[in-house]
Amino acid sequence: MQLNLGCGSQAMAGFVNVDAVKQDGVDVVHDLDVGPWPWDDGTVTQIQAIDVFEHVAAPIVFMTEAHRVLEIGGMLCMKTPHYKCRDAYTDPTHRRFPTEHTWDYWIPGTALFERNNAAYGGVSFDMVRREVYNGAIIIQLLKKP
Fold it and tell me: Does pTM top 0.70 for this prediction?
């Protein structure tokens, strides 16, 4: 199973499309700040979260629930505005303004992981891709065993 979290009006074929508001194309209505998410442990192969992470109120819930539902080797793919981008501050529903290092709390080998991971859910991912491109951060994380 593949999840398209926070899909809004951008439903994706072949994915379970999830949003907090029921609208055309949304398969599951769920608040991503509330765990547990409505999927079993290790049942998801891929999560797409395009322009979602900056909106969540509970980023630790988001990351620990994504880790829980992903299978080993499952991919978490996110895009979010970079904090230096004007658009990061335009939307009044944005709750955070990520940098390239926001996810280091969940990536072994980083100083933030070593100092803080236990307090940030105790889960870890391998970094596959981290790129700042055209005002956005694109990040791909692989669930570790």
Answer: yes
